[in-house]
Specification:
The chain has 159 residues and is mainly α. It has a single domain, classed as Ferritin, core subunit, four-helix bundle (Ferritin). The chain is 79% helix and 4% strand. It has a two-stranded antiparallel sheet. The chain is elongated, with a radius of gyration of 16 Å. 30% of the residues are buried. The mean pLDDT is 83.
């Protein structure tokens, strides 16, 4: 049984920022779904990806509610998490001002998903609880699957 670890206020804040990263990614993908609504296949792809990002945000909320139980250590710092969130927020604001072509949106999303898959496991935490580790491992796999799915659509449309 994993020991009952209490997260520091700073650690809890990091997990909350990670949650906001996922929520902002979902918002971005929902926006893409709206602006490409004239293409039902592409719009559905963005909506599906947004819903999966919502699920990832729930994983981070769960980690916060568990108050550190099952987490051995957090391996990222608040500055890195904040910088990632700020970058995604800036991109979201930018695409709202100047919507990208589908090709550019797909390329961006592929890069984002590959980056987030690495960020989740390699820098966020080490785990004592194997079930919690499996939950976050599945999130990393989902991000890689998102990237693969987006790459497949990109190749179908543009290669």
């Amino acid at each position: 049984m994993a020991k009952d670890v209490k997260l520091s206020l700073n650690d809890t804040r990091i997990l909350e920022i990670c949650c906001r990263i996922e929520e902002t990614s979902a918002d971005l993908y929902r926006y893409f779904s709206e602006i490409y609504a004239d293409n039902p296949q592409i719009s559905a792809l963005w909506e599906k990806t947004a819903m999966e990002e919502d699920s990832h945000a729930e994983h981070f909320r769960l980690a916060c509610r568990l108050r550190g139980s099952g987490i051995q250590t957090l391996k990222t710092d608040i500055n890195k998490a904040t910088a990632i969130l700020a970058k995604i927020q800036r991109i979201y604001e930018s695409v709202q001002k100047s919507p990208p072509a589908i090709k550019d949106a797909l390329q961006f999303a592929i890069k984002l998903e590959l980056f987030l898959s690495e960020y989740h496991m390699s820098t966020v935490a080490t785990y004592e609880d194997k079930n919690l580790e499996a939950l976050f491992s599945s999130m990393m796999k989902n991000d890689k699957d998102h990237a693969s799915m987006l790459e497949k659509v990109y190749k179908e449309l543009f290669e």
